[in-house]
Amino acid sequence: MQxxxxxxxxxxxxxxxxxxxxxxxxxxxxxRRLISGPMLMMYFAxxxxxIDGQPWLLFDFASRRIMLFGTxxxxxxxxxxxxxxxxxxxxxxxxxxxxxxxxxxFACPQSIWSWLFIRIETLxxxxxxxxxxxxxQALTGTPLARRIAKHSLWxxxxxxxxxxxxGYFIPIRELVSDLLNLxxxxxxxxxxxxxxxxxxxxxxxxxxxxCTHMCPYARFQGVMFDSDTRTVSYDAARGEPRRGVREKGxxxxxxxxxxxxxxxxxxxxxxxxxxxxxxxxxxACIDACDxxxxxxKRPRGLIxxxxxxxxxxxxxxxxxxxxxxxxxxxxxxxxxxxYGFQNRNNLLLEVLRDRNTxxxxxxxxxxxxxxxxKLEAIDPTIEQVKLTLQGPAGLYLTGPAQLTMxxxxxxxxxxxxxxxxxxxxIRSEITFIADTGSDLVSKPGIFLQASH
Length: 452
Ligand code: SF4
Ligand code: SF4
Prior knowledge:
- This protein is an alpha+beta fold.
- Among the domains are: about 15-80 and about 95-215, no CATH class; about 345-450, Sandwich (Immunoglobulin-like).
- Helix content is about 40%, strand content about 20%.
- The strands form 6 sheets. Strands 10, 11, 12, 14 and 16 form a 5-stranded antiparallel sheet that branches. It has a 4-stranded antiparallel sheet with strand order 15-13-17-18, with no helix packed on it.
């Protein structure tokens, strides 16, 4: 392998430790927008878009319900949400083995919000070069006004972000109304302030330091990479020895040492120094370098998503067992979640046999068991539920055949199950069936003939 000389990262980018990211254009920037744009919109839409007065997503602790796109779910459906998270994690692992840290560069909320805040910074304080110049100047007049505008917009963006996040747990209309009328409780207000401060701090002030020092994902990336993982790499064999455009000779590589790849890097690294844990695979340096290659009429791809095997042996990435394994787990998890969603019930049925009195005798002298039937409707449109019993022919149920749900969405009723058959065994298996018209929920139980 060719040795690349160590060099100091240009101080034109990092001033006093602060990175002034230069925005660039190109294929990967468009791709990032194509991925992160809908994710950002979905983050806000889930809370702010309402169907029949209900948001697309709400974790309602008070009524122990989850609302998801007009569907009501109960806490016991949380495993389905956990399944979705497991599927998301598998997708991240699959992407990490195939393409390195693309999650970080293209879809991670930290990156998405950081780019958003960088855009606000560019809009208010000007481009990276202007901002770098202003670092050494006294903060008065227009620069001061621009700085105030930047921080004001950052605070506003942080507050809207925090409000939206809180709206996942408290209906957003209530939240806005409480805020406007200054009637917000201390707990909610404190939560909003903490969330806003975290957003402002992470996306505005520390940005790449979260990725390089705080995020654990960067640390265990190392164990996921293999020699076929495509990650952003500099083709040293083609680029070195690097020379400025004016110094180029016949022995020079394609790199013109313009530093553009460093200036656009959100983590402030020089990819020409080789693979570094700070790199989030955002592709900004690829776009910047491709622009330079176009200008000097050299082929694109001096920096590109390439695997070690591609770089050294020109070998195409292959399907490895680990990649196939993550793909398989992802497929199975998604299939299980889809199955779970399709087979979930809108009604919860609980049947409790009276254990204090195993049996009792009714007015006809028949042995009976007593059961408490509890119903809870997940879907608030359920009003009437028909209750039936499946079991041996000699058993019959005494109690209302139709139950009306109360305003709370639940109801309970005691039933007597009695026996007319003298030949019935001591223990019989039975099933209670609740029918809403659209859902059929059953609960198994036993009937005992033992006398107390
Ligand atoms: S952008 Fe390309 S040409 Fe310019 S310094 Fe980086 S690798 Fe070299
Ligand atoms: S080195 Fe390139 S891909 Fe890596 S973080 Fe910097 S700009 Fe993004």
